[in-house]
């Protein structure tokens, strides 16, 4: 079965995870990341500015492919879709969420940390999973080990990845993309250091060039 989420991640193998406190930052932040070569952006629902941020980026930065993160329950999918999000990411995967994502038609990236969770995702017809929290569950060695029993599964490790460990994940054959907040550090966002963020994005995009 084709997995629309896999297609998105193949086009954008490094996904900045954004925690936007002030919706006024959303558009310049998205422009900087896209200019640095990272078009897929995950705006987490962790702040009250998230939905407004998704709306603003969708309206003003058409080159960005905006998704929503921290999806916890089926209703979050509806709200995110209404705001214009084009894919959805969750730290985990409940049966309710897997069912709602399928019904909504929204490309969905559920979080997995164990073999049983990968098996439930495969049973639900998905082929790509967020390995979360990637560093804490054992890092590249754990993701690589999932490749034994699950050769068909692909992963987007997220959680604890930094610029000096990104390449260790990207070189794994079953890793299609990686994600994380290190691309939009809080200090740089609050200082409006969009050039600094563009530079971080460019060096991360460079790490993934071989995947293209
Ligand atoms: O909020 C969500 O939807 C999450 O699932 C968690 C984030 O993906 C990680 O917190 C990113 O981890 P760091 O890059 O280590 O900051």
UniProtKB/TrEMBL annotation:
Gene Ontology molecular function, alphabetical: 2-dehydro-3-deoxy-phosphogluconate aldolase activity
Associated pathway: Carbohydrate acid metabolism; 2-dehydro-3-deoxy-D-gluconate degradation; D-glyceraldehyde 3-phosphate and pyruvate from 2-dehydro-3-deoxy-D-gluconate: step 2/2
Keyword terms, alphabetized: Carbohydrate metabolism, Lyase
Catalytic activity: 2-dehydro-3-deoxy-6-phospho-D-gluconate = D-glyceraldehyde 3-phosphate + pyruvate
EC code(s) of this entry: 4.1.2.14
Entry-linked InterPro entries: Aldlse_KDPG_KHG, Aldolase_TIM, KDPG/KHG_AS_1
Family: Belongs to the KHG/KDPG aldolase family.
UniProt subunit comment: Homotrimer.
Name under which the protein is recorded: 2-dehydro-3-deoxy-phosphogluconate aldolase
Organism per entry: Caenispirillum salinarum AK4
Taxonomic lineage from the root: Bacteria, Pseudomonadati, Pseudomonadota, Alphaproteobacteria, Rhodospirillales
